[in-house]
């Protein structure tokens, strides 16, 4: 379980195809603190550390993960948002994030609003996933508040700190991003669907 508060960014150092899977080798500032079998969110996608070698570590993405996320678009040098799993001894600064990417979205526009940034994302229609103004959304693993919500699209406002500290600053129109919708909203949508309300 995660909070969506990005701890650091990492850099993809090596990519190796392993049958239908892909092994990613990354470096980050806290590699020396990692352990084998540890869960680590990469752009919001929970992956297991399978190998550590000096200042790098390796994770494996299976085919299902590659189909549901933007990991297949990574290249050597890609900057990735990282968060270690939640410790149950501190404050929950973001919201409850599972690290299970629901789907990808596409950056529709990015507006510079004198220091802050207004990003609009669109995604494929689905009754299971929705957003509401002032609700929570996870974008590339970052916990954000929905500013505007529409059919199959939403907008978020990014403060300068988040823009600079995460990989948001590299986004451009047309980029594919990982989305995890709020778990409470997903349960409500499923219950309503069962009752034929939606």
UniProtKB/TrEMBL annotation:
Keywords carried by this UniProt record: Repeat, Riboflavin biosynthesis, Transferase
Ranges: Lumazine-binding repeats: 1-95, 96-192
Gene Ontology molecular-function annotations: riboflavin synthase activity
One example of a Gene Ontology biological process annotation: riboflavin biosynthetic process
Start and end residues of each Lumazine-binding domain: 1-95, 96-192
Recorded metabolic or biological pathway in which this protein acts: Cofactor biosynthesis; riboflavin biosynthesis; riboflavin from 2-hydroxy-3-oxobutyl phosphate and 5-amino-6-(D-ribitylamino)uracil: step 2/2
Protein EC: 2.5.1.9
UniProt key word Metal-binding: no
PROSITE patterns: LUMAZINE_BIND
Catalytic activity, as annotated: 2 6,7-dimethyl-8-(1-D-ribityl)lumazine + H(+) = 5-amino-6-(D-ribitylamino)uracil + riboflavin
SUPFAM superfamilies cross-referenced by the UniProt entry: Riboflavin synthase domain-like (SSF63380)
NCBIfam families membership: PRK09289.1, ribE
UniProt function note: Catalyzes the dismutation of two molecules of 6,7-dimethyl-8-ribityllumazine, resulting in the formation of riboflavin and 5-amino-6-(D-ribitylamino)uracil.
UniProt-recorded name of the protein: Riboflavin synthase
